[in-house]
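Appendix B. Chain record.
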Amino acid sequence: MSEEPLTINRLRPSNYPALATDRLKAGLACFLLSLLPCFVESTLAASPSPFNAEYEAKYGGFKASAERSLFFSGNGQIEMTTSLKLKLLGKTLSSITEQSILDSDPQNNQFRPVDYSFTQTGIGKRRRQINFDWEAGTALYNDGKNEIETPLQVGLADNLSSYLEVSMQLQAGKQDIFFPVIDKGNIEHLHFKVLGEELISTRSGNYRTIKIEKIRGPDSKRSTQMWLALDWDYLLVKLVQIENGGSNISLELKRATVNEVVVTAVDEKDTAQRIIEK
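C-alpha cells predicted for this chain:
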C-alpha cells in the first residue's frame, strides 16, 4: 500500500474531522492486513474461517467503530468486508466501506481476488475499484477520474485479501513476510516481521498473541504493530500506529465470532502455566 503523507502543520477546528478520517483510514489500511488462516493465489487452497469482528478505533479525541467480516456466498465465492465509521459528538462524520471478492481458480483450485471496491461517504467522499481479469492477466483500477491497467502476477492481493497471504506465511513459520499488493493501480511489495509471542490485556480480556510489525524504509518515522490471537485463527486483537508527529492511532477488539463461535479471552493463570510448560 502506498504511504500517504499525514503531516499536520496547523490544526484548525474546521479540518479536525478530515484529518482524523485520513489518519484512521491509514491505520485501518494496516488493520486490513490483520490475519486469519487463509490462503491466496501463491498457496494451496484452503477454506478460510468465516468470522465477524467489531473494533474500537481512536485517534486523539476522535473515536471510530470498525467491523470486519468474511463469509462464503451462495456461488462459492469469498466475500470480505470492512466498515469504519468516524463519529464526533455522536454524529457520523465519515464512513468507509471496503469489499473484496475472491473466487477459486478452476485450474489449480487456488483463491484469488476478482473485485475490490473502496467507498467513502461524508467527509472525504471518494470511491475506487479494481477489477481483476485473470484470463487477460491484467487488473483495471478506476477511481472515476483515472484508469490504470496493471499486469497481474502470482500472489498479488488487494488491501483486504492480502492478509490471507500474511497468515499463510505465519503458518509456514516465516519470521519475515514478503508479498506484492496492488493499491491505487500500483504494485508494491510489503514486508512484515514477526516480533514474537505476547500475552496482552485488552478491555475484552487477555489474549495469547503473535506480534508483528510492518517494515518501512529507513527514513520512515511511522511505526505499525499488530497483535493477532493465537487461539482464534490469527484474529486481530490490537493495532497501534505511531505517526511521524508522534500521534497515535489505536484499534482494539470489542467482540467477535469465528466459525460462529464467540471469541473469548484466556484465563491469565492458565496462560502462565502454558508458558511454564513450554
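Further analysis of this model is presented in Appendix C.
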